[in-house]
Design a protein that fits this description.
single chain; 352 residues; alpha/beta; 13 helices; 7 strands; 12% strand
Length: 352
């Protein structure tokens, strides 16, 4: 693997040729460097491998950096906007599914994870996946669930940080100007000294300090981050998804158990500068699962309201102080939460 990819596969002691293959595919936020998430994926991999809840399961945990965040010179891509990143991540997901099929002889069931803008990309990939299934073009893989961490999926420009970012990024050529100034300044600072500043002055752990230093020194990383950020401010506005994402008993297309809508988990920070509280609360009230299954009430459709609610995503707000950038210093505590949600997604899927 190169610096743009992380992968943790089934251990030799656990690997079972007759077990179900699961691909847990992580989509990073912005800046989209996957090495930030190494401790998180490593901790989650360890927890799933040690768990006795799903013994007949082989877990493949994988993530890719977003396009434009390569940290070495070479074939430097053009700047990628939000729609470019969605297509890029979609391609990388299919590459990984095909690789597991080739190596194991079995098609994996897929659970997506997305952080920050990666959660928006996750929902768009689900939408594209459903469109493929419903078009009956071909038998697609089973996409059985998603975990959205600190998601920025509506009106990001209304958040406290979004207000500042949207104002600055509205200045013409701001991404180019800011990145050029940063490059000129950083040209005179050795990478080793930059790492030292980030590690000991900003008190970043080693993996985050190395990744941040590499990001700052990368060919187009700063400009790509700002360019993508401008697209986020412009495009992440109203809730744009319909029942294929949010609602109630979608039709199962060519895959008999592909019911992604019932297996989404959202996790927000209580105090997140990139998510406006009103926007978050409005989304939870409109789209989230609220009523316990035991409280059954007949609806006009003939279904119970509780059954309709059960198809809605589960949405949680952190009861602690986990920050938006959890992958810097809070990987282990988030991995423990995600382990439970991943196991629940698989168990719920198997019951369908």
């Amino acid at each position: 693997m190169d610096e743009t990819t992380l992968y943790y596969g089934p251990s030799t002691s656990r690997c079972n040729s007759g077990a179900q293959e699961y691909l847990i595919f992580l989509i990073p936020g912005n800046p989209g460097l996957i090495p930030y998430y190494d401790p998180f994926l490593s901790a989650l991999h360890h927890l799933l491998e040690a768990s006795t809840t799903l013994p007949s399961s082989n877990f493949h945990l994988c993530g890719h950096s977003l396009r434009g965040f390569e940290t070495t010179d070479g074939n430097v891509p053009h700047l990628a906007g939000l729609q470019d990143q969605i297509r890029y991540v979609d391609d990388r997901l299919y590459d990984r599914v095909d690789e597991i099929r080739h190596n194991t002889g079995h098609s994996p069931k897929v659970i997506l994870m997305g952080h920050s803008v990666g959660a928006y990309i996750l929902l768009e990939i689900i939408r594209r996946h459903r469109m493929r299934i419903e078009s009956m073009m071909h038998q697609d893989f089973d996409l059985i669930g998603g975990v959205l961490l600190f998601p920025t999926i509506t009106h990001i420009a209304r958040s406290p940080s979004g207000i500042v970012a949207s104002t600055l990024l509205s200045i013409p050529h701001s991404a180019y100007i800011a990145s050029t100034v940063a490059k000129a300044f950083m040209y005179f600072i050795p990478s080793s000294f930059l790492y030292w500043l980030i590690r000991y002055v900003m008190r970043f752990p080693d993996h985050a300090a190395r990744t941040t230093a590499a990001f700052i020194k990368s060919p187009i990383g700063i400009e790509e981050s700002l360019f993508l950020g401008k697209d986020e401010m412009d495009q992440i506005t109203d809730d744009r998804w319909g029942k294929e994402i949010w609602g109630a008993a979608t039709e199962p297309g060519t895959n008999s158990k592909d019911t992604i809508s019932s297996n989404l988990v959202f996790f927000w920070g209580r105090h997140d500068a990139w998510v406006a509280k009103r926007t978050r609360n409005d989304l939870i009230n409109a789209r989230g699962f609220r009523e316990p299954p035991s409280q059954k009430k007949r609806s006009s459709s003939g279904l119970t309201d509780s059954l309709v609610e059960e198809w809605k995503p589960s949405m949680f707000i952190d009861d602690g102080r986990i920050p938006h950038g959890f992958c810097i210093k809070h990987s282990e505590v988030v991995a423990e939460k995600v382990q439970t949600w991943v196991e629940d997604i698989i168990i719920n899927h198997e019951r369908m």
